[in-house]
Design goal:
single chain, mainly beta, 6-stranded mixed sheet, two-stranded antiparallel sheet, 1 helix, 10 strands, about 5% helix
């Protein structure tokens, strides 16, 4: 250890880390000790699946603004009610079709009880084939910009 003298003061010769020197007009540095931390949860919903939504018999994927969300899935709850028979397609339906009515047509639920249905957003189709299944008659249609399937 070295002793340094400067005038009448004696200093120990210790290693000193450089310290930033602030001019009088520089703002003083601030350190926040209570900033919120970022937490990452491994149990967050997938970006591929949206939350469950309660819908009515008139609701279509087009009304929900899903056309450009190809590959997305959405869980919906259809109430007990009366099917809307304005739907187009079989297994793959136009996005102007009633989700709940398509689910009845596909045999996934009964109108009298309603229930949960998953829909998957698909892209444009060159045509939709109409059929009669489970008491629901769908219509045929040509090319359309959006579609979905029920699961």
């Amino acid at each position: 250890m070295k002793y340094l003298t400067f005038g009448s003061c004696v200093f120990l010769g210790l290693a000193i880390a450089p310290v930033a020197i602030l001019a009088h007009h520089d703002p003083a540095p601030t350190v926040a000790h209570h900033q919120p931390s970022t937490q990452i949860s491994h149990h967050q919903p997938s970006t591929q699946t949206a939350k469950v939504r309660a819908i009515d018999w008139e609701t279509t994927p087009g009304m929900l603004g899903l056309r450009n969300q190809i590959g997305q899935t959405l869980s919906v709850i259809c109430p007990a009610g009366q099917p809307i028979e304005k739907i187009w397609g079989t297994d793959i339906y136009s996005d102007g079709s009633s989700i709940c009515t398509a689910a009845v047509h596909a045999g996934l639920l009964e109108a009298t009880t309603g229930g949960n249905v998953m829909i998957k957003v698909l892209g444009s189709q060159t045509n939709f084939v109409g059929t009669e299944r489970n008491g629901i008659t769908t219509s045929s249609y040509g090319p359309w910009g959006g579609s979905f399937e029920v699961e």
